[in-house]
Amino acid sequence: MSKPNFSLEVFPPKTAATTLSLWKASQELAPFKPEFISVTCGAGGNAPGDTTKEVALVMAQQAHCPVAAHMTCVSGSREELLQLARDYWQSNIRHIVALRGDMPGQERYTPRADGFAYADELVAALKEVADFDISVAGYPEGHPDSSSMDKELEYLKKKADAGANRIITQFFFDPEVFLRYRDRVAAAGIKAEVVPGLLPVLNFKKMTAFAARCQTSVPEFLHKMFEGVEAEDIDHRLLAMNILSHQITRLHTEGVNFFHLYTLNESMLTRHVCRWIRSAF
């Protein structure tokens, strides 16, 4: 069985404190040689004030590992996004995470009249700019806007057929959820690699609220595990590490050899997970 590998995800900082947290995490995590580090967009994509591009360019110079930049359809017009892609390619950023995105302040998604309507269009356009390595999103428990999983997979296939190399999933907690999803993706004739996205539980209460918005189920046993445990308690961190190690071990026994960790710009828990992956298999 092959040794597992992993990638990491960070988000652009908005304050001096979060900037310090990001660079501290990056310096501590880069030595574990992730396959790549991806930099997300802020709310609303690459809107004015979003620093995805700046962070990605600096990280590409300092992290000493490949960097992937997120791009969303809501971030700009077609030409603005294509120019951004050309800038990334010229700056030696050759991996894009292509997403639809959500318009801030709107309950339902409305495509920009001057932009790409959905991620499959963005993927196809990026491939015309250059031979980018492209990741797209997958939703094991369905996207909140999807009417059914069949429709979700139909759209996922469009993204893969447009040139996506990899599908990074929304976070989940039950490994069986991912394994069932992987089977359905394969049955739909989608050839792109399916990578499980894993979320460290840094604050259980905040995580459950976020999971509800993302349509991600939180198993009842997790509620019982964290009952009465505060986020700052060492027990909280130990439980979070236990959850991640269980997910990775279970999925690895089913042939999963690549994992994407949503770091939340935190280094301690993620650092121990990275060290464990590198040494335990």
Characterization of the model:
The protein has 281 residues and is α/β, with parallel strands linked by helices. It has one domain (5-280): TIM Barrel (Alpha-Beta Barrel), CATH 3.20.20. Helix content is 44%, strand content 14%. The protein contains ten helices and nine strands. Strands 7-6-5-4-3-2-1-9-8 form a nine-stranded parallel beta sheet, covered by helices on one side. Helix 4 packs parallel to helix 5 and helix 9 runs parallel beside helix 10 (268-280). The longest helix has 20 residues, at 234-253. It is globular. The protein starts with a strand and ends with a helix. The model is unreliable at 44-49 (pLDDT under 50).
Q: What's the CATH class, please?
A: Alpha Beta
Tally of helical runs: 10
Question: What is the architecture at the second tier of CATH?
Answer: Alpha-Beta Barrel
User: How do the strands line up in the largest sheet?
Assistant: 7-6-5-4-3-2-1-9-8
Kindly list the characteristics that best describe this protein.
281 residues, alpha/beta, TIM Barrel, nine-stranded parallel sheet, 14% strand
Question: What is the structure about, briefly put?
Answer:
Belongs to the methylenetetrahydrofolate reductase family. By secondary structure, the protein is of the alpha/beta class. Helices cover 44% and strands 14% of the residues.
